[in-house]
Specification:
Shape: flat
Number of strands: 0
Largest sheet: none
Structural class: mainly alpha
Strand content: under 5%
Radius of gyration: 26 Å
Number of domains: 1
Number of helices: 5
Length: 126
């Protein structure tokens, strides 16, 4: 996926803040302190302000996409493992259906409508 280049350059603290959040999933205050912002409430406020900047948000989305891409390979491997090795046939079936769906082989949604009976319309203009 091609991302447009960042409009503004991130500071070392902003980069460290985002990298810490994405890598560890910790809260903003902890990430801000690790990135070199002030400790405590002041660090949380500074970190929150930094995360609201458009170029910082764009960098965070890029990093998250990278992490999700890496995690997707492990998730796919786990689905394959469940499909072939789960003790429950239901789990095997659901894993197989999910893999087929993700590969583009989703079953066609079918809806069948039947109308039974006569429909009569009587218009009296008189």
């Amino acid at each position: 996926m091609n991302q447009p280049p960042l409009q503004r350059k991130l500071t070392a603290k902003q980069t460290a803040l985002v990298d810490t959040l994405v890598a560890t999933g910790c809260n903003i205050q902890t990430a801000a302190e690790a990135a070199g912002y002030a400790s405590g409430e002041s660090g949380r406020v500074s970190g929150t302000k930094a995360l609201k900047l458009p170029h910082v948000q764009q960098y965070m989305m890029q990093r998250m996409n990278e992490q999700f891409g890496i995690a997707a390979t492990a998730a796919g491997a786990q689905l394959r493992k469940l499909m072939t090795g789960a003790k429950s046939e239901y789990v095997q079936l659901e894993a197989a259906k999910d893999l087929l769906d993700r590969a583009g082989y989703k079953p066609i949604d079918r809806s069948q409508v039947q109308v039974a009976g006569d429909i009569r319309v009587s218009i009296d203009l008189g």
